[in-house]
Amino acid sequence: MTKATPHIQPNGKKIAKTVLMPGDPLRAKYIADNYLENVEQFNEVRNMFGYTGTYNGKEVSVMGSGMGVPSIGIYSYELYNFFDVDTIIRIGSCGALQENVNLYDVIIAQGASTNSSYVEQYNIPGHFAPLADFELILKAKQKADDIGATTHVGNILSSDTFYNADPTFNEQWQRMGVLGIEMESAALYLNATYANKKALGIFTVSDHILRDEATTAEERQNSFTQMMEIALEIAE
């Protein structure tokens, strides 16, 4: 196990086998402060906070990933390959595309379509579909049902563009049945697959792209508790 990388420097602090990974490092701090016991901070490089503690007796880490495929691509690669992490569960917000998906619903990302070129590094002779770990999907759906969360399981889009110059961009992905848009999971799923590790993305709908509905930044940071609880409960 690597002691440090340019981006993660634990200084002897432990990183658990399962890491919850929100994009926002302040959401990582919120989870550590409100859900974990016996917490130690293992990373603060570039203010990308990482913490390890226990949840119901299980050792769990939580760390921010930053925004976009390149950022989570770096952090998840290092966690899987240099710090012996087995499972990363991304928890974040997304914009809904389908009419039956509403604000605060939970999306469990079975697959992650993308307009990113991240997959090209593998020189695959075709179009590879990045998928989550099936056992994690099953566990997450069961736990979501147990707590009464409104959930949707299916395909999401990891987009490299937040502001897209093509006015038909969202409608084209909606037509293909994509549930929502975020910016990271495809890289996470690809890294997990290539390293023979596990990954899953669980999202709270923060806005509805086609209905012009949105939550506030404070709500996104502090109020999306169902996805956090689902991820913590299925942490291995």
Automatic annotation (TrEMBL):
<keyword id="KW-0808">Transferase</keyword>
<feature type="active site" description="Proton donor">
    <location>
        <position position="207"/>
    </location>
</feature>
<keyword id="KW-0328">Glycosyltransferase</keyword>
<comment type="similarity">
    <text>Belongs to the PNP/UDP phosphorylase family.</text>
</comment>
<feature type="domain" description="Nucleoside phosphorylase">
    <location>
        <begin position="18"/>
        <end position="231"/>
    </location>
</feature>
<dbReference type="GO" id="GO:0005829">
    <property type="term" value="C:cytosol"/>
</dbReference>
<dbReference type="InterPro" id="IPR035994">
    <property type="entry name" value="Nucleoside_phosphorylase_sf"/>
</dbReference>
<dbReference type="GO" id="GO:0004850">
    <property type="term" value="F:uridine phosphorylase activity"/>
</dbReference>
<feature type="binding site" description="in other chain">
    <location>
        <begin position="206"/>
        <end position="207"/>
    </location>
    <ligand>
        <name>a purine D-ribonucleoside</name>
    </ligand>
</feature>
<dbReference type="GO" id="GO:0004731">
    <property type="term" value="F:purine-nucleoside phosphorylase activity"/>
</dbReference>
<feature type="binding site">
    <location>
        <position position="7"/>
    </location>
    <ligand>
        <name>a purine D-ribonucleoside</name>
    </ligand>
</feature>
<feature type="binding site">
    <location>
        <position position="46"/>
    </location>
    <ligand>
        <name>phosphate</name>
    </ligand>
</feature>
<feature type="binding site" description="in other chain">
    <location>
        <position position="27"/>
    </location>
    <ligand>
        <name>phosphate</name>
    </ligand>
</feature>
<feature type="binding site" description="in other chain">
    <location>
        <begin position="182"/>
        <end position="184"/>
    </location>
    <ligand>
        <name>a purine D-ribonucleoside</name>
    </ligand>
</feature>
<dbReference type="InterPro" id="IPR018016">
    <property type="entry name" value="Nucleoside_phosphorylase_CS"/>
</dbReference>
<feature type="binding site" description="in other chain">
    <location>
        <position position="23"/>
    </location>
    <ligand>
        <name>phosphate</name>
    </ligand>
</feature>
<feature type="site" description="Important for catalytic activity">
    <location>
        <position position="220"/>
    </location>
</feature>
<feature type="binding site" description="in other chain">
    <location>
        <begin position="90"/>
        <end position="93"/>
    </location>
    <ligand>
        <name>phosphate</name>
    </ligand>
</feature>
<dbReference type="GO" id="GO:0042278">
    <property type="term" value="P:purine nucleoside metabolic process"/>
</dbReference>
<dbReference type="GO" id="GO:0006218">
    <property type="term" value="P:uridine catabolic process"/>
</dbReference>
<dbReference type="InterPro" id="IPR004402">
    <property type="entry name" value="DeoD-type"/>
</dbReference>
<comment type="subunit">
    <text>Homohexamer; trimer of homodimers.</text>
</comment>
<comment type="function">
    <text>Catalyzes the reversible phosphorolytic breakdown of the N-glycosidic bond in the beta-(deoxy)ribonucleoside molecules, with the formation of the corresponding free purine bases and pentose-1-phosphate.</text>
</comment>
<protein>
    <recommendedName>
        <fullName>Purine nucleoside phosphorylase DeoD-type</fullName>
        <ecNumber>2.4.2.1</ecNumber>
    </recommendedName>
</protein>
<dbReference type="Pfam" id="PF01048">
    <property type="entry name" value="PNP_UDP_1"/>
</dbReference>
<dbReference type="InterPro" id="IPR000845">
    <property type="entry name" value="Nucleoside_phosphorylase_d"/>
</dbReference>
